[in-house]
């Protein structure tokens, strides 16, 4: 990761806290039924939002998800997949809490052709499966699309996060995903992970390669460590008072979500400003209209403001500056699954880490860069992202002539 990208990342860590806006999110009167399991946070939803300090709950999350996915034309099924339960004090990281209630993974599955290959989507840090809402229709035309909220995120269960090491934290996500796979009886699927979800997907494929036939890493985090990078800038920055404060906040597991919760009923204002600035569409023909922007903002707020759980993974997976504590680059020689990397040309996650990893990978790999897009390439340049993804999956979509398919116009092979 370059020093310029490190500076951009460090700045973004506190950007949400500085972006408090002036406009309230309009109240929505849409109602929704949900299959989510009732929780204590869900029972609080019976109170009017204005009377609660944090106006959200799991029920609110699922309802906001349903409203956002109303923009998708392809029929889908939403379910809470039971991945089991364990006694208090269990040695299993994602069981270890004061509760022995079953854990659930929020899952949406879209209608598809019977013979379509299965594509599983894993979101990144601070996100959830609904972030792929602009892609579901196009992807469902060629794949059986299944998208999940990782454990501790979105509409999934949010058990107490009790991990105290990188190894335990990785197990939290990898092993809970494996329990979900078993519950769904899936194998031989294409696995796509974005950002931190790319890190999880890659670590899962390293541990369970027998179930993944192709790996797609979109703006993936976790390839470079602090020692791999020429991080003189970061060292100097930590020596300043601002750097010392930010590094302390990081090591104290302070997250942007805590700012949102701390603002209580004013939290939606902050999220509205954040989403309007964060998801800038470069194509004039693809700019979000007011309804879409409102639905996305509402969804993002509810997923971020709910109980802290999976978000607390941050300091155990990355050191300050988004450098992996156990970088994927160091395990490139162990790679067992063919891999396609997709990056926006303006992504602050540098593709150079993937280039270095590719040199040691014993399996086929390729890097595709999408112009006019940053870290959220699948929102910012939808046609470009779909073109890159379909090309990455050409072996499964066009098995008879995939070797003869030309590289798509407008994309960049790195």
UniProtKB/TrEMBL annotation:
<keyword id="KW-1208">Phospholipid metabolism</keyword>
<dbReference type="GO" id="GO:0003841">
    <property type="term" value="F:1-acylglycerol-3-phosphate O-acyltransferase activity"/>
</dbReference>
<keyword id="KW-0443">Lipid metabolism</keyword>
<keyword id="KW-0963">Cytoplasm</keyword>
<keyword id="KW-0444">Lipid biosynthesis</keyword>
<dbReference type="GO" id="GO:0006654">
    <property type="term" value="P:phosphatidic acid biosynthetic process"/>
</dbReference>
<keyword id="KW-0808">Transferase</keyword>
<dbReference type="GO" id="GO:0055088">
    <property type="term" value="P:lipid homeostasis"/>
</dbReference>
<comment type="similarity">
    <text>Belongs to the peptidase S33 family. ABHD4/ABHD5 subfamily.</text>
</comment>
<dbReference type="InterPro" id="IPR029058">
    <property type="entry name" value="AB_hydrolase_fold"/>
</dbReference>
<keyword id="KW-0012">Acyltransferase</keyword>
<dbReference type="Pfam" id="PF00561">
    <property type="entry name" value="Abhydrolase_1"/>
</dbReference>
<dbReference type="GO" id="GO:0005737">
    <property type="term" value="C:cytoplasm"/>
</dbReference>
<protein>
    <recommendedName>
        <fullName>1-acylglycerol-3-phosphate O-acyltransferase</fullName>
        <ecNumber>2.3.1.51</ecNumber>
    </recommendedName>
</protein>
<feature type="domain" description="AB hydrolase-1">
    <location>
        <begin position="117"/>
        <end position="381"/>
    </location>
</feature>
<dbReference type="GO" id="GO:0004623">
    <property type="term" value="F:phospholipase A2 activity"/>
</dbReference>
<keyword id="KW-0594">Phospholipid biosynthesis</keyword>
<dbReference type="InterPro" id="IPR000073">
    <property type="entry name" value="AB_hydrolase_1"/>
</dbReference>
């Amino acid at each position: 990761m370059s020093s310029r990208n490190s500076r951009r990342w460090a700045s973004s860590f506190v950007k949400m806290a500085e972006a408090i806006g002036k406009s309230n999110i309009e109240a929505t009167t849409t109602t929704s039924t949900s299959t989510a399991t009732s929780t204590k946070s869900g029972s609080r939803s019976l109170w009017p939002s204005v009377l609660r300090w944090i106006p959200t709950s799991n029920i609110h999350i699922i309802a906001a998800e349903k409203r956002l996915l109303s923009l998708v034309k392809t029929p889908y099924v939403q379910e809470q997949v039971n991945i089991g339960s364990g006694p208090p004090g269990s040695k299993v990281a994602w069981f270890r809490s004061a509760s022995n209630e079953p854990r659930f993974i929020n899952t949406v599955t879209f209608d598809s052709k019977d013979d379509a290959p299965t594509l599983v989507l894993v979101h990144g840090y601070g996100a959830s499966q609904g972030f792929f809402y602009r892609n579901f229709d196009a992807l469902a035309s060629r794949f059986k699309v299944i998208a999940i909220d990782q454990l501790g995120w979105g509409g999934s269960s949010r058990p107490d996060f009790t991990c105290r090491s990188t190894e335990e934290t990785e197990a939290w996500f990898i092993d809970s995903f494996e329990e979900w796979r078993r519950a769904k009886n899936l194998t031989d699927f294409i696995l796509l992970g974005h950002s931190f979800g790319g890190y999880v997907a890659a670590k899962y494929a390293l541990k369970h390669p027998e179930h993944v036939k192709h790996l797609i890493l979109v703006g993936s985090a976790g390839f470079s460590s602090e020692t791999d990078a020429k991080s003189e800038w970061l060292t100097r920055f930590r020596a300043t008072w601002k750097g010392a404060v930010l590094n302390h906040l990081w090591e104290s597991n302070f997250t942007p979500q805590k700012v949102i919760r701390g603002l209580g009923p004013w939290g939606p204002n902050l999220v509205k400003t954040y989403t309007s600035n964060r998801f800038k569409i470069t194509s004039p023909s693809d700019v979000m209209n007011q309804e879409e922007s409102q639905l996305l903002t509402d969804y993002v707020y509810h997923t971020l403001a709910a109980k802290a759980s999976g978000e607390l993974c941050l300091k155990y997976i990355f050191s300050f500056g988004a450098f992996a504590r156990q970088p994927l680059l160091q395990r490139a020689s162990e790679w067992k699954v063919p891999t396609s990397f997709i990056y926006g040309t303006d992504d602050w996650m540098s593709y150079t880490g993937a280039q270095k990893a590719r040199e040691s990978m014993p399996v086929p790999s390729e890097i595709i860069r999408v112009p006019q897009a940053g870290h959220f390439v699948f929102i910012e340049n939808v046609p470009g992202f779909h073109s890159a993804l379909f090309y990455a999956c050409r072996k499964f979509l066009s098995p008879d002539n995939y070797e003869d398919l030309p590289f798509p116009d407008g994309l960049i092979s790195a």
